[in-house]
């Protein structure tokens, strides 16, 4: 099949959406599919408000329409709700083409945490965005249930995986590390609730891998914490293997790929018992989930790293991509590709 994936996450970004689409595209190609990945990397861009390091596509509709007409996909998947996603959605509705979408990020909680927009308003907009989708792919059962309760329709599960050949236990030089070492990997931003980790009184040392708008402020407030900045995805294995515990303080992530990567290296996770960790971490086996983050961190130290690794082996990009393909096949079977996708002749707009 010819599968077009449209995303607002540029491939130079370091986040779970980029890693998910990169792994999924690789699996699809390995399975014999042709994949067109449209991202802001090939478009004029502007800085995202409050996240200047993130670039968004500027007026991408014409080029997206031309690219899709040229590629003539069998299936179109819209991965994000930004300018690229909006343009692809508009194109599909104008052409009368069925498409699927994904819910990767809790934007209502993110925007609310930054006092930008109330959650109710953002969820209303997201219901509008995903409303015409034939299948809204969500990463975990908890997220699916939450969205059902908020009035979303056509929800299906699309899990995540981990490269267990890249992320695996390896020997590292631990001589200079004050033990135990607690590690955080992710954006240094208010929605990640990172300060809950920095505030807790723990023996040993703390490392933070990642960058974001709060980094400079938090470095000044927590001088004993080592802020190591953002690291390329392929370098993370070494840092995971240095850690005794991976701390994941977020209340807003839909999945949390870094938890699975850490567990694949044998590193137990300490997190809150919220959506994301509840679906990803096997409490008492691969991590500890506790409303008291201090207790979770200390108890995680006692877990067997071999058991932690064993749990991570249950996650597979091949299995996750099979789920993704199944949802695309359903859309393709429901409605054959219309001829005007190839000719470029428009149909009346629907839903706009």
What does this entry look like structurally?
There is one protein chain. The protein is α/β, with parallel strands linked by helices. The strands form 3 sheets. Strands 2-1-5-6-7-8 form a 6-stranded parallel beta sheet, with helices on both faces. A 6-stranded parallel beta sheet has the order 11-10-9-12-13-14. The two termini are 29 Å apart. The chain has helices at residues 16-30, 61-71, 83-95, 107-113, 119-130, 141-149, 194-199, 215-221, 236-242, 257-264, 277-280, 293-300, 305-312, 317-334, 340-343; strands at 2-6, 34-38, 45-48, 51-57, 75-78, 100-102, 136-138, 155-157, 181-185, 205-209, 226-229, 245-248, 269-271, 287-289. The chain is globular, with a radius of gyration of 21 Å. The longest helix is centred in the C-terminal third of the chain and has 18 residues, at 317-334. The chain folds into 2 domains: 2-161 and 317-343, Glycogen Phosphorylase B (Rossmann fold, 3-Layer(aba) Sandwich), CATH 3.40.50.2000; 181-312, Rossmann fold. It contains 15 helices and 14 strands. Helix 7 (194-199) links the parallel strand 9 (181-185) and strand 10 (205-209). Helix 1 (16-30) packs across helix 14.
Offer a few descriptive terms:
352 residues, alpha/beta, Rossmann fold, 2 domains, globular, disordered C terminus
């Amino acid at each position: 099949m010819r599968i077009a994936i449209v995303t607002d996450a540029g491939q130079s970004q370091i986040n779970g959406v980029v890693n998910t689409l990169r792994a999924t595209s690789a699996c699809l190609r390995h399975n014999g599919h042709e994949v067109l990945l449209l991202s802001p990397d090939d478009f004029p861009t502007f800085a995202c408000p409050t996240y200047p390091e993130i670039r968004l596509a500027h007026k991408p509709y014409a080029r997206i329409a031309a690219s899709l007409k040229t590629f003539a996909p069998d299936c179109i998947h819209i991965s994000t709700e930004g300018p690229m996603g909006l343009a692809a959605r508009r194109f599909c509705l104008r052409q009368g083409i069925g498409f699927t979408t994904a819910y990767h990020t809790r934007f209502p909680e993110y925007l609310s945490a930054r006092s930008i927009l109330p959650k109710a308003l953002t969820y209303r907009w997201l219901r509008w965005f995903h409303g015409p989708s034939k299948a809204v792919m969500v990463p975990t059962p908890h997220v699916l249930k939450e969205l059902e309760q908020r009035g979303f329709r056509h929800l299906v599960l699309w899990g995540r995986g981990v490269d267990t050949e890249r992320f695996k236990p390896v020997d590292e030089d631990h001589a200079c590390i004050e033990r135990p070492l607690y590690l955080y990997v992710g954006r240094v931003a208010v929605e990640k609730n990172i300060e809950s980790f920095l505030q807790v009184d723990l023996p040993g040392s703390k490392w933070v891998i990642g960058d974001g708008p709060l980094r400079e402020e938090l470095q000044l407030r927590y001088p004993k914490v080592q802020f190591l900045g953002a690291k390329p995805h392929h370098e993370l294995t070494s840092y995971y293997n240095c850690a005794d515990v991976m701390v994941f303080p977020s209340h807003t992530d839909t999945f949390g790929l870094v938890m699975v990567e850490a567990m694949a290296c044998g590193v137990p996770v300490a997190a809150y018992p919220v959506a994301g960790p509840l679906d990803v971490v096997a409490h008492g086996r691969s991590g500890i989930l506790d409303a008291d983050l201090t207790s979770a961190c200390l108890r995680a130290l006692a877990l067997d790293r071999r058991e932690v690794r064993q749990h991570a082996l249950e996650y597979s990009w091949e299995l996750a991509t099979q789920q993704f393909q199944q949802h695309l096949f359903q859309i393709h079977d429901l409605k054959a590709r219309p001829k005007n996708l190839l000719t470029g002749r428009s149909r009346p707009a629907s839903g706009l």
